[in-house]
C-alpha cells in the first residue's frame, strides 16, 4: 500500500478512535403542539391529577403508554379494562386498529350457475373498469 | 358521531340492532359471532360510536372464496389465468335504520374495500362479489360493482368489483371531477 494512503488510513483510524471515546451527543428535539382549549384543559387536569409539573414528563409518560398500546395491538392483543365486579371494556381506538395484524378471512363456497360463471369469466378476463367517484372517495376516506 | 369500525367481539350489543330486514338482523344476532369465532366461515366487522363502543350501528361480513378453474364454461376458460379464481365475498352489509342517512353505509363499504385490497396484497384475490338485494343494486353500482349476468327475477343479484379497479381508485389523489 503507498505510504500516503497508509498515513491517511492511520489518521482516519485515530479520528474514529477519538470520536468513539467522546460521550454520545444527546440531541433534544423541541415538540410544540397547538391544542384546542378543551385539550389544553385536559392536559392541565391530567398533569395535576398525576402530580406532574413539566410538559416533558407528561409527554414522556404519554409516549410510553402509547408505545405500549401500539406494541400490544401489533401482536394482536386486545387492551381491556376490568372493573372490581369483573365488568370488562375493550379499548377501541381507530389509530391503534391500523397496526393490528393483517386480516385473515375464512373460506366459503358460493353457488354459481353456468351463466353466472360465464359472465364472471368475461368480467375477470376483460379490462378492469375505471373507478367511480364514489369508489375513489371510499378509498380516500 | 365518532364512528369506529372493528372486528366483532363476543359481548358486543346486538340485541337492539334493527336494519329493517329480518334475515340481516337475525344473522347479526344469532350467527355472526358463531360464524366468526366457532366455525370460522365469515368475519364480521361492526360500526360503533365512541359514546357507546359496544352497540352495533352497522356491520358487514367478509369471507374468502374461490371458483375452481374447471367449473368455468370451456369457451371462457382461455382468457383466464391457469388457476382457480380467488375472491372475497361481501356476505352481509347492513345499517341500523335509526342511524341511516349518516354515511355509515359509505364508511362500512369503504372499510370492506380497504380490507379487500389488504387481503389481495397479502394472499392474492382477484375481485369482491356480493349478493345484492334488487333495490340495493344501484347503491353498489355507485361504487363500481357490476351485475353478474343472470339473476333470479326477484332474488339477490350477484355483483362484481375487480380488485384492479379498487387499486386504481387508490392511485387517484383527487376525484376526476375535482381534477377538472
Notes on the protein architecture:
The complex is a heterodimer of chains A (141) and B (180). By secondary structure, chain A is mainly alpha-helical. Chain A has a domain at 35-100. Chain A has six helices and two strands, in the order H-H-H-E-E-H-H-H. Chain A has a two-stranded antiparallel sheet. The N and C termini of chain A lie far apart (62 Å). Chain B has a seven-stranded mixed beta sheet, sandwiched between helices. Chain B starts with a strand and ends with a helix. Chain B has one domain (3-179): Gcn5-related N-acetyltransferase (GNAT) (Aminopeptidase, 3-Layer(aba) Sandwich), CATH 3.40.630. Chains A and B meet through strand 2, helix 5 and helix 6 of A and strand 3, helix 2, strand 4, helix 3 and strand 7 of B.
Features:
heterodimer, A: 141 residues, mainly alpha, two-stranded antiparallel ribbon, 6 helices, 2 strands, elongated, B: 180 residues, alpha+beta, Aminopeptidase, 33% helix, 26% strand, globular
Roughly how much helix do the residues of chain A carry, as a percent range?
Answer: 40-55%
What is the strand tally of chain A?
2
Secondary-structure element order of chain A, as H and E? HHHEEHHH
Total individual domains of chain B: 1
Give me the secondary-structure category of chain A: mainly alpha
Overall mean confidence score, pLDDT of chain B: 88
**What is the fold named in CATH at topology level of chain B?**
Aminopeptidase
Output the helix-strand order of chain B. Answer: EHEEHEHEHEEHH
Report strand order across the widest sheet of chain B.
Answer: 1-2-3-4-5-7-6
Provide the CATH top-level class of chain B.
Answer: Alpha Beta
Poorly predicted tracts of residues of chain B: none
Radius of gyration of chain A over all CA atoms, rounded: 29 Å
Distance between the termini of chain B: 33 Å
| Cα separation of the termini of chain A | 62 Å
Amino acid at each position: 500500500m503507498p505510504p500516503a494512503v497508509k498515513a491517511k488510513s492511520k489518521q482516519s483510524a485515530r479520528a474514529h478512535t477519538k470520536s468513539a471515546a467522546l460521550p454520545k451527543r444527546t440531541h433534544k428535539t423541541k415538540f410544540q403542539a397547538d391544542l384546542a382549549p378543551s385539550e389544553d384543559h385536559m392536559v392541565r387536569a391530567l398533569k395535576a391529577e398525576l402530580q406532574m409539573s413539566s410538559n416533558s414528563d407528561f409527554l414522556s409518560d404519554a409516549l410510553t403508554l402509547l408505545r405500549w398500546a401500539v406494541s400490544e395491538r401489533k401482536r394482536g392483543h386486545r387492551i381491556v379494562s376490568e372493573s372490581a365486579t369483573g365488568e370488562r371494556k375493550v379499548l377501541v381506538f381507530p389509530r391503534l386498529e391500523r397496526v393490528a395484524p393483517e386480516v385473515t378471512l375464512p373460506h366459503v363456497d358460493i353457488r354459481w350457475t353456468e351463466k353466472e360463471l360465464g359472465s364472471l369469466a368475461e368480467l375477470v378476463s376483460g379490462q378492469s373498469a375505471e373507478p367511480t367517484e364514489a369508489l375513489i372517495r371510499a378509498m380516500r376516506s | 358521531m365518532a364512528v369506529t369500525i372493528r372486528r366483532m367481539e363476543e359481548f358486543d350489543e346486538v340485541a337492539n340492532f334493527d336494519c329493517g330486514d329480518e334475515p340481516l338482523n337475525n344473522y347479526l344476532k344469532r350467527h355472526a359471532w358463531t360464524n366468526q369465532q366457532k366455525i370460522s366461515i365469515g368475519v364480521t366487522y361492526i360500526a360503533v360510536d365512541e359514546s357507546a363502543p359496544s352497540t352495533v350501528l352497522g356491520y358487514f361480513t367478509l369471507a374468502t372464496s374461490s371458483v375452481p378453474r374447471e367449473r368455468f364454461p370451456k369457451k371462457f376458460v382461455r382468457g383466464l389465468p391457469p388457476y382457480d379464481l380467488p375472491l372475497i365475498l361481501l356476505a352481509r352489509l347492513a345499517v341500523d335504520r335509526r342511524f341511516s342517512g349518516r354515511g355509515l353505509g359509505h364508511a362500512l363499504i369503504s372499510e370492506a374495500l380497504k380490507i379487500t385490497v389488504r387481503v389481495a396484497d397479502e394472499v392474492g384475490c382477484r375481485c369482491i362479489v356480493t349478493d345484492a338485494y334488487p333495490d340495493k343494486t344501484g347503491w353498489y353500482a355507485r361504487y363500481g360493482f357490476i351485475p353478474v349476468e343472470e339473476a333470479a327475477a326477484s332474488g339477490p343479484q350477484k355483483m362484481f368489483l375487480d380488485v384492479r379497479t379498487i387499486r386504481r381508485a387508490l392511485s387517484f389523489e383527487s376525484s376526476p371531477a375535482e381534477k377538472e
